UniProtKB/TrEMBL annotation:
Listed NCBIfam families: transcriptional regulator NrdR
Residue span of region Disordered: 145-164
Matching InterPro entries: ATP-cone_dom, NrdR-like_N, RNR_NrdR-like
Role played: Negatively regulates transcription of bacterial ribonucleotide reductase nrd genes and operons by binding to NrdR-boxes.
Taxonomic classification: Bacteria, Bacillati, Actinomycetota, Actinomycetes, Micrococcales
Protein name stated in the entry: Transcriptional repressor NrdR
Family recorded in the similarity comment: Belongs to the NrdR family.
GO molecular function: ATP binding; DNA binding; zinc ion binding
UniProt KW keywords: ATP-binding, DNA-binding, Metal-binding, Nucleotide-binding, Repressor, Transcription, Transcription regulation, Zinc, Zinc-finger
A single GO BP: negative regulation of DNA-templated transcription
This protein's record includes keyword Cytoplasm: no
Recorded superkingdom: Bacteria
Length: 164
């Protein structure tokens, strides 16, 4: 690590701490030549291999913008999307891989998106799971209903009847 003051090619680590989110390490350093002190922040790089073969750094913003399209017209806020993107990043980092392809990231989005909004989940899943027919949608909807046996509209209607 070059000293930012005198460009000496070495420095000594005085203190190391992990950040609050646990994704980076903050190191306090001192130059042995000029005694200048500076801070570095180190993160493990996570790269995405696009379909074209191009490799680029992982971006939470790209995750949020991709999901934003599926959430158009749905009651999902930008804060919800930011939390989803953070959840996805934490999930893909836990795999231990330093490079992931876009399809793996798309699949990692499905779980948190399903919890956030089922309609947006279906829209997004239709792309990443390559739905070819109405049967694919029907199967996905049947799976959602299986996981949530009580129809939400039915329980809302029962609640409004009880209040009368």
């Amino acid at each position: 690590m070059h000293c930012p003051f005198c460009r000496h090619p070495d420095s000594r680590v005085i203190d190391s701490r992990t950040s609050d989110d646990g994704l980076s390490i903050r190191r306090r350093r001192q130059c042995p030549q000029c005694s200048g002190r500076f801070t570095t922040i180190e993160t493990a790089s996570l790269s995405v291999i696009k379909r074209s073969g191009v490799i680029e750094p992982f971006s939470r913003e790209k995750v949020a913008s991709g999901v934003r399209k599926a959430c158009q017209g749905r009651p999902v806020t930008d804060a919800d999307l930011a939390v989803l993107a953070q959840t996805v990043e934490e999930s893909v980092r836990q795999t231990g891989a330093s490079q992931l392809d876009t399809n793996e990231i798309g699949l990692a989005i499905l779980g948190p998106l399903r919890e956030l909004d089922e309609v947006a989940y279906l829209r997004f899943a239709s792309v990443y799971q390559a739905f070819d027919s109405l049967e694919d949608f029907e199967s996905a909807i049947a799976q959602l209903r299986e996981d949530h046996p009580r129809d939400r509209r039915g329980s809302d209607a029962e609640a409004s009847v009880d209040q009368s």
